Amino acid sequence: MIEFSSVTKRFPDGTVAVDALDLTLATGELTVLVGPSGCGKTTSLRMINRLDEASAGTIAIDGVDIRQHPVTELRRGIGYVMQHSGLFPHRTIGDNIATVPRLLGWDKKRVAARVDELIETVGLERDMAKRYPHQLSGGQQQRVGVARALAADPPIMLMDEPFAAVDPIVRKRLQDEFLALQARLGKTIVFVTHDIDEAIRLGDRIAVFGEGGRLAQFATPNELLAAPKSDFVVDFLGAEPQLKRLSLLPVSAAATIEAPLIATGATAAEATSAADTAATDWVLVVDGERRILGWHRVADYAADTARAPESFDAVVGAGDTLRAALGALVISPLGVVARVDADGRFGGLLAQSSLHRALS
Ligand SMILES: Nc1ncnc2c1ncn2[C@@H]1O[C@H](COP(=O)(O)OP(=O)(O)OP(=O)(O)O)[C@@H](O)[C@H]1O
Ligand SMILES: [Mg+2]
Fold this sequence. Notes:
Bound molecules: adenosine-5'-triphosphate, magnesium ion
CATH architecture of the largest domain: 3-Layer(aba) Sandwich
Protein name: ABC transporter ATP-binding protein
CATH superfamily of the largest domain: P-loop containing nucleotide triphosphate hydrolases
Family: Belongs to the ABC transporter superfamily.
InterPro entries: AAA+_ATPase, ABC_transporter-like_ATP-bd, ABC_transporter-like_CS, P-loop_NTPase
CATH class of the largest domain: Alpha Beta
Distance between the termini: 32 Å
Number of helices: 14
Helix content: 25-40%
Shape: elongated
Keywords: ATP-binding, Nucleotide-binding, Transport
Strand order of the largest sheet: 6-7-8-3-9-10
Pfam families: ABC_tran (PF00005)
Order of helices and strands: EEEHEEHEHHHEHEHEEHHHEHEEHEHEEH
């Protein structure tokens, strides 16, 4: 873990960038630092790899003060993605990515193989290795920055607004790729962003910094949204915190309600009984594989059991979020959403009460 104990950074002109910071970042977790511009996020990162030295307090990694070892040794274990990518402009993309492996004295073959592998990992084309940074878009440069930081497979990654230069759609894709990568690599990551939605999506924990480099709150995304500690944090979290919480919870987190199910060809009495048990005036029809065929009002079905069912589209997969479930709920004519498995088989009904209970 990375442990800040009463860390203060005062620059020579008197600016206090970080003020008495106590923060413990767990190994293998992704901790996000968020907060308004100038609140000390970059400075906090730069103190971890000693590009800035703390003026007071200590930073320890796995219990060892970072000043105990030579700075080169410290940095070998830390990948750093700089704000605005920070690539060497006169070196090719390949040479940029190869920087640390070469410093470590890897042989040529191993370096070349690693460069190829990383270009692929961050979703760029292999022939881009020969280009120079100015021949790439801002978002592509940021990916190269990520590849360069990953090159020697360091256990710790410091990432300063790595996806800031890309549009929201590409950013969402990069975030997805990054989450998948992190699930595989399990690195200790300190990730800076301005974007609270990005923080909520990516972070295992979020440290919200306030003006003057003070920590306003440190919590999991769900805790932060459920119980913000101050008006400052509330403002920073922005509109619709409950919707944001729903987007963090999987459909599987919500309890299902009694479902009035009938099979094709059920009798009117069977339909009435299923509806009575679930306290509804409608039934869902499923086939032999429990796939939803549609729904009937019980009264209509009783009058004509041969009628075709109404279509039912309010369906979510087990891997969807409760926010998707809410989206399906508002267009559902029955006020319920059906959860289905990967093969489309019925797995339970959710109502507004299910979402309410999941949040409370
Ligand atoms: N070398 C320096 N000398 C004096 N003040 C500095 C120096 N570097 C940073 N600062 C000041 O320290 C404060 C924190 O800066 P820092 O770069 O850590 O902010 P940040 O949270 O990363 O902001 P942003 O979101 O804009 O990147 C700011 O007020 C900044 O002006
Ligand atoms: Mg910054």
